[in-house]
Design goal:
Elements lengths: L5 E6 L3 H12 L4 E7 L2 H11 L3 E5 L7 H11 L7 E6 L3 H9 L4 E3 L4 H16 L3 H12 L11 E6 L5 E8 L2 E6 L5 E5 L2 E6 L2 E5 L3 H7 L5 E5 L2 E4 L3 E8 L2 E6 L4 E4 L1 H11 L4
Parallel strand pairs: 1-2, 1-3, 3-4, 4-5, 6-11
Antiparallel strand pairs: 6-7, 7-8, 9-10, 9-13, 10-11, 12-13, 14-15, 15-16
Helix pairs in contact: 2-3, 3-6
C-alpha cells in the first residue's frame, strides 16, 4: 500500500452486498479494492496475502464468521499488520453494541450512502492518526475469551419511584455502581429473556424482561415500537419510510430501530398526527 492509498478487502457472502461496497469504494479517491471474498476462510487468506489497511467483514459468512476471521488474523498478523475492521451485519444488535463500546465501526444492512461515508471518514481519520495498533488491541479485548462481546461489561438493576414507575437504573461494574435516570435511556432491546438498555453510546444488560419493563416505564416517553424494542421519544431524530407502511425510527446518534406495523397507530396517537 502506498502512503496515499488505503487498500481494502471486502468479505461478504451476498453478491449484491459485495457489489455495492465495491461500487461505493470505487468512487472514493485514495481507496483501492485489493480483493473480494465470499467466505471467511477465503477472507483470511486474502487479507494475509494483501495486508490491506481496511477490511469490511460480514458477521455471518459460510465457514468462518466475521469474529472467527478476526481471531485468525490476530494470530497470523502483527498489530501493525492488522487492518482496521468494519463489520457488516443485518440487525445483529448484540454485535453492534460491542463495536460501539470499543470504538469499532459497523454497517447495518441495508445501509445508506451517507452512513457509508461516515464510516469511511472515520477510517481515514484513524489511518491519519496512526491508531491501527490501538484498534488492534480493542479487537483483542473484544474477542478475548470471557470478554462477553455480546453481553457488555455492566449489569443493571432498577429502582422505582413512589408510584412503582422505573425511575433510576443502577449499573454495577465490579465494586463500582453508576446511576442513570430512566429518561437518559436512548432505547431498549430484548436480549433473550432479559433486556439491554442503550445510553450515552454504550449499553448494559438489565435482568428484567422487556414486557415487564414496558409496564414500569413512562408510556408517554419510553414507547414500545416493536416486540423487541422500546425507544425514548425525546431521542428520536426522524422517521424514515423504507417500504409502503414500513418505517425506521432514527435516533439522535444515528441508530435505526424498526417500527412495526402493529405499533404504528399507537405511535401516531402519541405524536398527535399520522405518518
Amino acid at each position: 500500500m502506498s502512503a496515499d492509498t488505503i487498500d481494502v478487502v471486502i468479505a461478504d457472502d451476498e453478491h449484491l452486498a459485495r457489489e455495492r461496497l465495491s461500487r461505493l469504494l470505487a468512487r472514493e479517491p485514495g481507496i483501492k479494492v485489493a480483493g473480494v471474498a465470499h467466505a471467511g476462510d477465503e477472507a483470511v487468506r486474502l487479507i494475509v496475502e494483501t495486508r490491506p489497511a481496511l477490511a469490511f467483514l460480514d458477521v455471518k459468512m459460510p465457514g468462518l464468521d466475521g469474529f472467527a476471521v478476526v481471531r485468525s488474523l490476530l494470530d497470523a498478523l502483527t498489530p501493525e499488520e492488522m487492518p482496521i475492521v468494519v463489520f457488516v451485519t443485518a440487525y445483529n444488535e448484540f454485535a453492534i453494541e460491542a463495536f460501539e463500546a470499543r470504538a469499532l465501526d459497523y454497517l447495518v444492512k441495508p445501509f445508506e450512502d451517507e452512513r457509508f461515508a461516515e464510516t469511511l471518514n472515520r477510517v481515514r481519520r484513524s489511518v491519519q492518526k496512526d491508531r491501527l495498533g490501538a484498534l488492534t488491541e480493542k479487537l483483542r479485548d473484544l474477542l478475548a475469551p470471557g470478554a462477553g462481546f455480546d453481553r457488555g461489561h455492566e449489569e443493571a438493576s432498577a429502582t422505582e419511584d413512589a408510584g412503582g414507575r422505573l425511575d433510576r437504573i443502577v449499573l454495577k461494574t465490579g465494586n463500582r455502581a453508576r446511576i442513570i435516570k430512566a429518561e437518559e435511556v436512548d432505547w431498549i432491546a430484548a436480549d433473550g429473556v432479559y433486556a439491554r438498555i442503550h445510553f450515552d453510546g454504550t449499553s448494559a444488560l438489565i435482568r428484567t424482561p422487556l414486557n415487564e419493563l414496558e409496564t414500569r416505564l413512562d408510556p408517554r416517553k419510553l414507547v414500545r415500537i416493536h416486540r423487541s424494542s422500546i425507544v425514548n421519544l425525546d431521542r428520536v431524530k426522524e422517521l424514515r419510510e423504507i417500504d409502503r407502511g414500513e418505517y425506521y425510527i432514527i435516533l439522535m446518534d444515528g441508530t435505526k430501530v424498526r417500527l412495526s406495523r402493529s405499533r404504528r397507530a399507537h405511535l401516531e396517537g402519541l405524536l398527535g398526527q399520522r405518518l
